[in-house]
Amino acid sequence: MFDWQDLYFFSVLARTQSLSAAARELGVEHATVGRRLESLEKALGMQLVDRLPRSRPLTEDGRAVAAIAESMQEMAHSLERRARAASADLAGSVRVSAPPSVAAACITPRIAALREHYPNLSIVLLPSTALASLNTGEADIAIRTVRPEENGLLCRQIGVVRFGLYATVAFSRRPPEQWTFIAYDEGLDHLPQQAWLHHVRAGRPIVFAASELNSQQIAARGHVGAVVLPTIVGDNDPALVRLAVELEAPVRAIWITAYPDIRRTPSVSAVMEFLVDCIQREPKLQG
Q1: pLDDT in tens, 139-168
Q2: Three-state DSSP state, 3
Q3: For residues 91 and 89, what is the distance between their CA atoms, to the nearest angstrom?
Q4: pLDDT tens, 33-79?
Q5: pTM summary value
Q6: Residue 94 CB: number of other CB atoms within 10 A?
C-alpha cells in the first residue's frame, strides 16, 4: 500500500511541473519532494516522471495517476466542506490551562483558525505556571510541563520547551562578571529553568524578580538584567539577543491532559486536536 502523503506530493508536482515549484508550494526542500516521488514510484511499481536535466515531465503512467489523484483531491475537499458544515454545530466554552509562554506565543495567535472552523465554540485560556485542577473543574484541558500524576487522566507528550538566557544588545556588551539577573520569586525556585539560572549566575546578583514571565521580559528590554525565557519567546523578541553560556539549558516536555469522560465530548475533543496542532506546527516546540 502506498503512502497517501506521497500521492499528495506527487499531485502538486504534476500540477506545478517542477520539483522547486512543488517544494515552494508545499513549504519543504525540493529533495523532500524527490524522496516522496521515489517512494510512490517504488510502491506502485511505475515510473511516473521522466528525469530530464531541468524538468520532470510526466510519463503516460504519471499522467494517468495524476488524473486519479486530482479526482481524489476533489473528493477530499468535499469531505472537508462537509466536515466544516457539521462542525458549525459544535458550541460551548472549553477551559484550557497552559503555561503563559505557550499560551501567548503559540495558542493565542491561532485562535482565529479555530474560530473559522468552529464559529460557535470558544476557548477560555488560563495562562498560569500553577497546575490547574482538572477534577474540580478549574479547566477541562491542561497543557503542562510536568507529567500529570493524577489517577485516571489521559496524557500525551506533544512537544518540548527549550530555554535560553536573553538580554539587550547593550547589556550583552558588558563583561560577564558585571551581569545582573532577572528571575522568578523564590517561591518558584523548584522550576528547572530557575534552578538553571541560579547555576549560571554563580552568585552574581538578581536585581529584579517577578512571579510572571511578561514582567521579566519587559524588565530585560529595559536593560535591567539577563533573563531566562523559552526560546519560542526570546528568539522572537527583536529587542533581545541570546547570551552564550557554557551550562546547557534545560528542556521540558509538554504534556496535554484531560479526563477520559471529558475528552469524549465533541467540543473538548475538537479543542484538544486544535491545541495539539498548535504545538506541532511550532518548530521551536518540537523535540
Answers
A1: 889 999 988 777 778 889 999 999 999 999
A2: coil
A3: 6
A4: 889 999 999 999 999 998 877 777 899 999 999 999 888 877 876 66
A5: 0.65
A6: 25
Per-domain residue ranges of the chain? 4-87, 92-156+256-285, 161-251
> Per CATH, the architecture of 161-251 is what?
3-Layer(aba) Sandwich (3.40)
CA–CA gap between residue 11 and residue 145 (Å, rounded): 40
Please tell me the distance from the alpha carbon of residue 51 to that of residue 65, in angstroms, as a whole number: 17
Which class would CATH give 4-87? mainly alpha
Query: Cα(195)–Cα(202) distance, rounded to whole angstroms?
Result: 11
Q: Which residue has the cell 499528495?
A: 8
Identify residue 115 by its one-letter amino acid code. R
Specify the CATH superfamily of domain 92-156+256-285: Periplasmic binding protein-like II (3.40.190.10)
DSSP E strands in the chain: the ranges are 92-98, 121-127, 141-144, 154-167, 181-183, 206-209, 226-230, 241-242, 251-258
Domains 92-156+256-285 and 161-251 share a fold: yes
How is residue 70 written as a grid cell? 486530482
What angle (nearest 5°) sits at the alpha carbon of residue 211, between those of residues 164 and 97? 85
Residue 61's H or E segment, with its range, is helix 60-87
What letter represents residue 252's amino acid?
R
Task: Pull the grid cell for residue 277.
Answer: 496542532
260-267's contacts with Cβ under 8 Å and 24+ in sequence apart are 260/152, 260/154, 262/134, 262/140, 262/141, 263/154, 266/90, 267/90, 267/91, 267/92, 267/94, 267/121
